[in-house]
Amino acid sequence: MNSQQLKRQVDHLLQTGNYDEIKSLLLAHKDTTEHDNDLAMLCYLCTIYEQEKAAGQRTIFEKTGSISKVLERYTALKFYLRRVDFDVIDDMGMFYQFLSQEQISSYELLRVIDFSVVHKDKVLQQIGAGAASEVTMSADSADDQEVFQTDIASDGSSATADNTEMKDMKQICFIICTNNPVYAEECIYYIRHLIVPEGIAVDILTVEDAKSLASAYNEAMQCSQAKYKVYLHQDTFIINPYFIRDCLETFAKDEKIGMLGNVGVKSMPRSGVMWDADRYGMLYEQHIYETELLANAIDSEEAYLEAEAIDGFLMVTQYDVPWREDLFDKWDFYDCSQSMEFIRRGYRVVVPNMKAPWCVHDCGFINLKNYDVEKEKFIAEYLQDIQ
């Protein structure tokens, strides 16, 4: 049974109220479930249903009635909790309103905190403290939002600068290839909460309906005149408020630094698989049922680690180098390829020495459907001579 067939069967169970059969059905088709993020998440959310049912409460499945509604609810709650976790929530009042309107039980709240939050005690304390002063916090956050919109326009550029000033400003463009507007909007939410250094103009470009990441990034690169470009996944959320400053300071250390990332390898393994080598850098990765810290420290005396390849969830450039869409026409190895293309041109690719993660990558399970085919292309193009 493929994933679409399985989803139709689960939806039927949700619509007919046969909730007890959902988990057993998903586990009976474990291989299909484990290779589909939606089904895997639904399987873990069954634990919330079981707890609520045992407590005699109205369950998450009764409140939703379809896979799409269950996942929409989970995603919204996860995003709210992460905003609290990393101090970027504008309006706690809206969060409490969501909890009330959606009838989020304590079981559901605590379970999703377990899945998606890094600083669990902090989040629980803030939720508790905020509930006691909801009206005050809502008023304060509304004032903050008004100031923020004065500083940053809807396209991410300075709202107060005239055309002459814009020409004199350095520009940084955030480029997102997206097939999910909910995740793209959340990615942009974090970008708009970054502290923008004086003299820097921010732009945001999204590319939809792309046939490959390389082609999407080439299209966006040609559309933007910004010197600095940040290529990031729609499920990458930048939590370092000084991200722009830190990137520019890294580039300023050496004009030969062409590209930086948050995670990379010193030397690309001859297998062509990045994670066959030690990966350096820092990152919070959220998989289906947990958020974990990926951390491999760089020597404390070094400002950055020179890498042979960086991970594509976030790649920042100060020079434009064409992406190899002629070779990589799917969704894999565009990042390793681009690292090699920069190095071929005499540029350096680096991972800054971070003291804390700059990003959360809400990646779920990785789709490796075309991975092996793309890997062989990469080996033939970049590693054959070395081997």
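Above is the first protein from milestone M3; the second protein from the same milestone is given next.
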Amino acid sequence: MEKRRRKINWITLVVYFITGVIISALALFFRNPFTAENTKDALRYWSDITLVSSIILYGLVFLSFSAHQGTFDGLTYSLKYVFAKFIPMPHIDEEISGTYADYKEIRKGKRKPIPIEGLFSATIFLIIAISCFIAYYMV
């Protein structure tokens, strides 16, 4: 059996990285390293900021992976079923016309692998956080 290598989607990688930068920018409001009294405190603040970004990115990757593996299929099916009863939409009616087992089979064909771009971006932020943390104790 031949293994297929998954190519990196560069646009997705950039989106995850920009998301991490935006999260870091939001964290700057709570921990402003530019107002630190010395270099040691600034390094601690930068470590905190990038660690928060990496944890949130890892969480987003986990949610994306679990959603693609079918964790939320039951919730999605029930919400689509309720909305289809009140608001007629032909594309939703096709998906839920059968049973839940039929819906699961349709969704099984749409499964995606783990988003390695998100893992890569989160790991970069984690490495920056660890580097700042090590530099904090070296200063």
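Note on the second protein: The mean pLDDT is 85.
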